Amino acid sequence: MKKVTPNGTLIKKLREQLAKGSLQKEMAHAVRVSERMLRSIENKNATISIATLDLIANYLGVPRDQVAFAIDVPKLVPPQEVMDRVLDDLFQDRVIPRFDKDLAYATMDEGQLIHDAGHSEDLTVQVDVQLSGETSEYAEELIRLLTALTWSQRDWSAKPTPADDIALARRVRQLLVLLKGNDVWLYYTHQLRHLPERFELPPPDEISKMEFRVAIVLGPPGEYGENTAKVDVDNGQPYLLKGWARSTGGE
User: Fold this and answer.
1) Three-class SS of residue 74?
2) pLDDT tens across 16-60, in order?
3) What does the DSSP 8-state code read for residue 218?
């Protein structure tokens, strides 16, 4: 598994600028490492896996190449002005376009998929791998089961029993295993959309309606320990993402 040399100094600065979750123990829990390991990352540039780098970048809200130096080999720390420029960008307001890219994460957690589908308005699917006749059948059944749980497609008159729920979870798990066994991984993310749909920014005084959507990617196995895939997302409308407040905190 390839390793990454992180930019620990920048990671620490970005963490401390977070309005929420700026404590080491909060971030360590979110990115699935110990507090001791996070201190080593921030203070010693301890090497980490690409999967952990993705979690750190996602937590901090930055592209992963901004918080890493190189794969397998160390690299000189960039000048302070480069780090300051990266930080300054995060303090600026940004317009997020309607159509954008996001990271979907590989999963074999049928419980989380069922839960998020059942709490979303709808579900989208992106196929980034060649499907055979066999894997197409598995994928179609899986997507059909998850789509039927969404608010827009659910049969609200149906009242599933606990036995129905267990059977559903068991079948979703089986389909995930069958797909992965045929080198088709499922990646997913849970997205919040801004409505009504439009291509321009809403009026400043308009309150957008929010709806959740599950975005799924059927893709090839991750390489070198990676567990993410790029997914096309429709945010419903462009929206203004406020820059970080210039405050200090954390440890």
Assistant:
1) coil
2) 888 788 899 999 988 888 899 999 999 988 888 877 888 898 888
3) E
